[in-house]
Amino acid sequence: MRAFTGGLWSYRNLLIIILTPLLILPLPLVIKTQVAECAYTLVLMAVFWMTEALPLSVTALLPALLFPFFGIMKSSVVATMYFKDFHLLLLGVICLATSIEKWGLHRRIALKLVTMIGVNPGMLMLGFMVGCAFLSMWLSNTSTAAMVMPIAEAVMQQVMSAEGEVSQHQEMAVNMILSVPEDDNVTEALPSSPLNSKYRNNRDHMMCKGLSLCIAYSASIGGLTTLPGTSSNLIFAEYIHQFYPDCKSINFGNWFVFCLPVCIIVLFSAWIWLYWLFLGTKCCLFLSLYPISKYMVHETKRNVRVNEFLMLSHFSVSSSQQEIITLVIFFIMAVLWFVREPGFMPGWASLFPEYPGYATDATVALLLGVLFFIIPANRPTADNYDAMITWKEFQACMPWEICLLVGGGFALAEGAKVSGLSSWVAELMTPLGSLPVLATVTIACILVTCITEVASNPATITIFLPILAPLAEAININPLYMLIPTTLSVSFAFLLPVSNPPNAIAFAYGHLSIIDMVKAGLGLNIIGVLAVLLAISTWGTSLFALDTYPDWAPIHDLTNTTGI
């Protein structure tokens, strides 16, 4: 029996691929409406995305296959959904990320931030979290975690090595004091550590756990801050631009102003939570509030050694010309994004009043991204001209699967709108309008946070956007009031190694167990949702005018009975 079930489990993906379409086939065959046919496509894609029975990008092609057969959309119309302004923005951002990775700018930024903040365990955790969060604002969360984890691992090994040296010197001193000629048996051998040999004591093990989770979680938290920071943010922005073209409040500047305080709150709270969970309750120690003691002297010796390692790593290679060029373009891109249409003041887009809305963040990203293929990396000669990046290097970094996944999501959303599925679901959920608006948003955030633990972030937000937006319209609240918190909550996938790639990367280094990640992630999920609800209820309301129903959203007959 065990052999049979084991063999069956090994074919689980094939069984899901075959059985799922057959089990839900009565839906379009019996009901025979476009709503049922689109629902069939949605359920099928949701199952395949959550189980990953098929690659995510392959599942994203199902609308292009099924919608023409069901008569929902023409094939030529579906095809236009698979390449949007989002994809052009992603191309430019990946050009920048390719240059940053190629020339090692990410490593220098991370080490510089860590050496500035300090090297005792608490400050070391904070330093890596700040550096990792800053990098993930501009690079993918996966790339950031993959870049920073090897640096953190080297630092952890150096910390444990310094700890061993200090302990060995103390033990030798004790032995010299206690060794007397009259009694050679005064001293006894110290008991061996019950832990794995790579950890000298439990405190070292706990430090490795805490620092590993700091890298994984901060890579996800930092991506919240900017629209290009994570794919779910970009999917949300493109959805708004596609289905609410008159909405001008979703831009780089407004998003940054709204999300930066959220990122700071969640990051600082995560630091305190992880320190308390893995390094104990003596919070004053990492805040340097305790007076000098034997413990502090011991820590100082170890910190000096670690600081020497970090400084040596930071200054071992001088800043190269390529790093400087990349940093300058990086800075220009960020500034141009921020001041295009910041919302609180006129941006550079206002210089072209005859072409409103023509230039987007993708325009800036493409303009500066192309420069990486033009600017020479070294002094050009008659026989040699090497650009900052090559097309092959760009291809290696370009997440083509995300392009297809996002395109499939846009096609699914358009199909749900054309078929009437979105309106049907919204009407079905209108009883939620009897609840306070904040309660409805909280339920949506919790639901999304739970599902994103077992499904990819882009897939989760792609499924929920075409459902929650019509729901907001049906109960007569600003769609942004519903969509912004749920978009941010999608990134709070902290419970399991499989929840997102940064978690898996940190888990692969062998310091963590599943229960470690569940305990830490559960608390951080709660912190994240509460921070988002605080933001949307306070400064977000005035920034995005969430207390009024906007002119750019369609008007329904149903009214919200509670107000905001």
Automatic annotation (TrEMBL):
UniProt cross-references to Pfam families, sorted A to Z: Na_sulph_symp
GO CC term (a single one): plasma membrane
InterPro entries per the UniProt record, alphabetical: SLC13A/DASS
Membrane topology: Multi-pass membrane protein
Key word Membrane present: yes
One term of GO molecular function: sodium:sulfate symporter activity
Coiled-coil blocks: none
Zinc among keywords: no
Ranges that cross the membrane: 12-31, 43-66, 86-105, 117-139, 255-278, 324-340, 355-375, 396-413, 433-451, 463-484, 490-510, 522-546
UniProt subcellular location: Membrane
Key words of the record: Ion transport, Membrane, Sodium, Sodium transport, Transmembrane, Transmembrane helix, Transport
Similarity comment: family membership: Belongs to the SLC13A/DASS transporter (TC 2.A.47) family. NADC subfamily.
Listed name of the protein: Solute carrier family 13 member 1
